[in-house]
Every structure is written in C-alpha cells, then in structure tokens.
Amino acid sequence: MSDIETIKAEVKKLNAQATQLKMDLHDLSEDLPIGWEKIPELAGKAFTAYEQLTEARKKLAAAGA
Fold first, then answer.
1. Are 18 and 36 in contact (CB under 8 A)?
2. Is the pLDDT of residue 27 over 80?
3. Residue 41 confidence (pLDDT) above 80
C-alpha cells in the first residue's frame, strides 16, 4: 500500500469516527436535559476526532492527493 493510500484509509477511518461522534452529540442534544452531564466528555471526544481528521486531511493534501 502506498503512502497516499495509507493516508486515504486513515482519513476514511477518522471521518467515520468523527461523523459518529457528531451524531452522538446530536442525539444527546435531542434528549436534553437528560444526560447533560455527558456533554463535556462527548464534546471532547468529538473535538479530538475532528482535530485528528483535519490533520490527516492536511497530510493527504501535502502528499499530493
């Protein structure tokens, strides 16, 4: 597997994780005020996931894909 293919696979994986966390946040928001105490943890996970996805996309762009 080439470097670009490896990075593309990583972007795909991170995108799926970030999208799932986004949906989890959305679901949590619909159930408020039930589960409000989960907001900081879930938001932190989503923040980290999108941060990693952004970095992976930059790496992919730098690799020429």
1. no
2. yes
3. yes
Outline where 1-65 has alpha helix (H).
3-31, 39-62
Are 32 and 25 in contact, with CB atoms under 8 Å apart? no
Regarding pTM above 0.85, the answer is yes
Q: What angle do CA 49, 51, 56 make, to 5 degrees?
A: 95
- Cα angle: 11, vertex 56, 20; to 5 degrees: 45
φ/ψ region of 40 (left if φ > 0, alpha if ψ in -120 to 50, else beta) reads: alpha
Exposure string (b/e) for 11-50, b if CB count within 10 Å is 16 or more? beebeebbeebeeebeebeeeeeeeeeeeeebeebbeebb
